[in-house]
C-alpha cells in the first residue's frame, strides 16, 4: 500500500512515557501528520483548548495522579469534538467502557503496532470526512494524494515535502481564508517559532511553482488576515 500524505492534519498526543511518545510521533510524522506531544495531562488539556486539532491520542495512565480519562472528559466538556483514541495497558471491558463513556471514540491496548494506530487514526478521520478522495482539485490545479503528484493544466509540478503539505492544506480548505497562525498550526509542529515569516516564505516558494507561470492566480493574499486558495 502506498503511503498517503496527510498534510494539514494535526494530532495531539498526551503520553507521559518518552519512549512510547517518540515511537508514536515517529510513526505519525512519517505519514505526514503534524504531532504536538504533551507529556502531562495538564499540558495536553491546555493545548486542546487553545489549538485546533484534528484528532487526539491520549494515554490513560499519565502518572502523577493524572488520568487520561479525566483529560478526555474535560476536552469534551469544553465542546471539542475531534476524535480521541485512548491508549492503555489495561485490557478489560470496564476500562474500555469507561473510556467510551467519557467521550473517547476508540481504544488501543499497549503494546500495539504503530501501523494499527495509524490505521485507526485514518479510519476516524475518514469518518469525520477529513480524509476525502485521493484527488483534490481547484480550477486546473490537481493533487493526487496517492501518487503524490501535482499538476496544473495537465503539466506536472515538482514540489518539495513542505510545499506539498502546504498546498494540500490550502486545497482541503479551498475558498476559506487561512490566517498565518492557522497555517503554521496545521502545517508545522508547535516547535516552529511563530514570530518568523516562515509561512510567507513558503507561500512565496509555492506560488513560484503553481502560480507564477500561469495567467490565473489561485493563491490570493487576504490583506491583514492571510491567504486563500480559490478559483
Ligand atoms: Ca503512561
Structural overview:
The protein is of the alpha/beta class and 231 residues long. It has helices spanning 18-30, 41-50, 68-77, 93-101, 114-127, 161-172, 180-187, 198-210; strands at residues 10-14, 34-38, 55-59, 84-88, 106-109, 135-138, 141-144, 149-152, 155-157, 178-179, 219-222, 226-229. α1 packs across α5 and α2 (41-50) runs parallel beside α3. The radius of gyration is 19 Å and the shape is elongated. Calcium ion (CA) binds at residues 16-17, 59, 61-63. Calcium ion binds at residues 16-17, 59, 61-63.
Cα-to-Cα separation, first versus last residue: 33 Å
Give the C-alpha Rg.
19 Å
What characterizes the major β-sheet? 5 strands, parallel
Supply the number of helical segments. 8
Name the helicity range: 25-40%
Please state the overall shape, judged from the principal axes of the Cα atoms.
elongated
Order of helices and strands: EHEHEHEHEHEEEEHEHHEE
Number of separate strands: 12
Strand-pairing-aware structural class = alpha/beta
Low-confidence stretches: 1-5
- Beta-strand level of the residues, as a percent range? 15-25%
Question: What ligands does this structure carry?
Answer: calcium ion
Strand order of the largest sheet: 2-1-3-4-5
Amino acid at each position: 500500500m502506498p503511503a498517503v500524505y496527510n498534510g494539514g492534519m494535526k494530532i495531539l498526543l498526551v503520553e507521559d512515557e518518552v519512549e512510547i511518545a517518540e515511537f508514536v510521533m515517529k510513526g505519525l510524522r512519517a505519514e505526514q501528520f503534524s504531532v504536538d506531544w504533551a507529556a502531562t495531562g495538564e499540558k495536553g488539556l491546555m493545548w486542546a483548548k487553545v489549538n485546533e486539532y484534528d484528532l487526539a491520542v491520549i494515554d490513560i495512565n499519565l502518572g502523577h495522579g493524572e488520568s487520561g480519562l479525566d483529560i478526555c472528559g474535560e476536552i469534551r466538556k469544553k465542546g471539542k469534538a475531534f476524535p480521541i483514541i485512548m491508549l492503555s495497558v489495561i485490557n478489560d471491558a470496564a476500562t474500555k467502557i469507561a473510556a467510551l463513556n467519557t467521550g473517547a471514540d476508540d481504544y488501543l491496548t499497549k503494546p500495539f503496532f504503530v501501523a494499527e494506530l495509524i490505521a485507526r487514526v485514518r479510519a476516524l478521520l475518514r469518518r469525520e470526512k477529513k480524509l476525502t478522495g485521493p484527488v483534490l482539485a481547484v480550477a486546473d490545479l490537481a493533487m493526487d494524494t496517492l501518487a503524490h503528484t501535482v499538476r496544473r493544466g495537465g503539466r506536472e509540478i515538482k514540489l518539495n515535502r513542505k510545499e506539498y503539505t502546504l498546498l494540500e492544506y490550502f486545497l482541503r480548505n479551498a475558498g476559506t481564508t487561512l490566517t498565518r497562525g492557522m497555517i503554521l498550526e496545521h502545517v508545522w509542529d508547535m516547535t516552529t517559532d511563530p514570530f518568523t515569516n516562515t509561512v510567507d516564505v513558503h507561500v512565496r516558494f509555492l506560488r513560484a511553482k503553481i502560480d507564477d507561470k500561469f495567467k490565473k492566480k489561485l493563491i490570493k493574499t487576504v490583506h491583514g488576515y492571510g491567504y486563500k486558495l480559490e478559483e
